[in-house]
């Protein structure tokens, strides 16, 4: 299992892995907002957490379709399905590797992008924390979509559309927790804890659903 | 080949049928393979050889019938696919990783099945005649070298059953003889081989199953 984690991490940083693509896309999306919105610093800092979260969500969707497809194309998926390891556990490990390769870089890049949006330190910290907690949920939800669309030659867009409705709650609670940290009357903990709960819920349900879909995707 | 103390192991396929779309590709295929036995599937393209192999490997849900595995070391309820190595048309190796990284990954991930031990990565590369190039990315190798390295994957982790789908595609004559020797060696170590092939592999005592496609099979003995 450790071997699978290390292999997927190596693949995500080597040529064509796509770990950097996500961060570049994230940077591009957030960096063009100030140009579009104009130099109204108050407005920028007010919409900042939402923009950073939306950028992260879109970037996270970008790399999802490759999660199982590359393994299917070269035949590795057949061998993975045949082993005695529980398939849900294998999928969980693949999700972790995918998040470390694609999700964590987004979290690390988010403070810089917070500066682009004229956010103060508390808002940047809160956005980074909510992204750290919330992006794994996007990966787990995305694993189900990626597993369903694994046999389709151009499943990328389909995966995004399948996954987006389920990812909306993550966005809502992530953004509201980030705002709660800077706007006084709103409490931070309730939306943050719901975000944690969503991530833990999908950490169980996502791999199970994806394993079921992969078992039935056999051609 | 006669084995006096060969371990008790048996791959049993009972009344297996599989469907592709509307048509039954084959129907009620049954056979039993014990330690040291091999079965060669022959037949035209599209006659269902690959489908049968995928069904035995557990990668395709059969329409009816079942595949079971019994052996001394295995817990009851072991799925047959866990005792099998499957070498399909695709090599299951990553072009971005070096050959050594690929083989080490499969060695660790697949692990040895009860009752045997795999070779080291260097030993396996040596056995397929390509010991000097394990540091190269897999994508740099030629098609024949890639096939040889995919075969080396079978050697790094022990599995009693080898399921081989056209193992000698894209290979030159010397590689074919290397593969034949490795397959014979596996049978000599009480392994079981189930292969679909056009080239004769030169195995003694191999059973042959001639697939005719669309629900027809004929069985014969060499």
TrEMBL record, chain A:
Coiled coil: none annotated. Belongs to the CcmB/CycW/HelB family. The keyword Oxidoreductase does not apply. Its main location: membrane. Required for the export of heme to the periplasm for the biogenesis of c-type cytochromes. GO terms for molecular function: heme transmembrane transporter activity. GO terms for cellular component: plasma membrane. InterPro entries: Cyt_c_biogenesis_CcmB, Cyt_c_CcmB_bac. The chain crosses the membrane at residues 12-37, 43-64, 85-108, 128-150, 157-180, 192-214. GO terms for biological process: cytochrome c biosynthetic process; cytochrome complex assembly. It is found in: Cell inner membrane. This is Heme exporter protein B. The keyword RNA-binding does not apply. Keywords: Cell inner membrane, Cell membrane, Cytochrome c-type biogenesis, Membrane, Transmembrane, Transmembrane helix, Transport. It is a multi-pass membrane protein. The lineage of its organism: Bacteria, Pseudomonadati, Pseudomonadota, Alphaproteobacteria, Hyphomicrobiales.
């Amino acid at each position: 299992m450790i071997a699978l984690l290390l292999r997927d991490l190596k693949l995500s940083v080597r040529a064509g892995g796509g770990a950097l693509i996500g961060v570049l896309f994230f940077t591009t999306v957030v960096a063009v907002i100030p140009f579009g919105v104009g130099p109204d610093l108050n407005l920028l800092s007010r919409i900042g957490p939402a923009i950073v979260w939306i950028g992260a969500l879109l970037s996270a969707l970008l790399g999802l379709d490759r999660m199982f497809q590359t393994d299917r194309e070269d035949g590795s998926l057949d061998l993975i399905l045949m082993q005695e390891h529980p398939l849900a556990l294998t999928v969980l490990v693949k999700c972790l590797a995918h998040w470390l390769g694609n999700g964590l870089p987004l979290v690390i890049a988010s403070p810089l992008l917070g500066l682009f949006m004229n956010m103060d330190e508390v808002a940047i910290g809160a956005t980074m924390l909510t992204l750290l907690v919330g992006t794994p949920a996007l990966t787990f939800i995305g694993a189900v979509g990626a597993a369903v669309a694994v046999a389709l030659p151009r499943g990328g867009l389909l995966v995004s559309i399948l996954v987006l409705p389920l990812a909306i709650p993550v966005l809502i609670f992530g953004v509201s927790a980030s705002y709660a940290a800077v706007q006084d009357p709103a409490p931070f903990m309730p939306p943050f804890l719901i975000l944690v709960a969503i991530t833990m819920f999908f950490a169980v349900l996502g791999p199970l659903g994806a394993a079921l879909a992969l078992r039935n995707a056999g051609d | 080949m006669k084995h006096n103390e060969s371990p008790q192991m048996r791959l049993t396929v009972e009344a297996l049928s599989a469907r592709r779309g509307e048509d039954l590709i084959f129907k009620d295929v049954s056979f039993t393979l014990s330690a040291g036995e091999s079965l060669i599937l022959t037949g035209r393209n599209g006659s269902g050889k690959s489908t049968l192999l995928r069904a035995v490997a557990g990668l395709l849900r059969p329409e009816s019938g079942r595949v079971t595995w019994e052996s001394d070391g295995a817990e009851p309820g072991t799925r047959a696919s866990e005792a099998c190595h499957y070498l399909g048309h695709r090599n299951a190796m990553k072009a971005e990783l070096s050959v050594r990284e690929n083989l080490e990954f499969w060695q660790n991930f697949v692990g040895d099945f009860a009752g045997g031990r795999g070779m080291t990565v260097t030993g396996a590369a040596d056995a397929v005649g390509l010991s000097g190039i394990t540091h190269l990315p897999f994508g740099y190798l030629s098609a024949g070298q890639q096939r040889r390295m995919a075969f080396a994957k079978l050697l790094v982790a022990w599995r009693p059953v080898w399921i081989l789908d056209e193992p000698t595609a894209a290979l030159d004559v010397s590689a074919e003889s290397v593969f034949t020797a490795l397959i014979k060696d596996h049978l000599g170590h009480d392994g079981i081989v189930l292969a679909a092939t056009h080239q004769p592999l030169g195995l003694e005592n191999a059973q042959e199953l001639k697939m005719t496609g669309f629900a027809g099979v004929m069985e014969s003995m060499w």
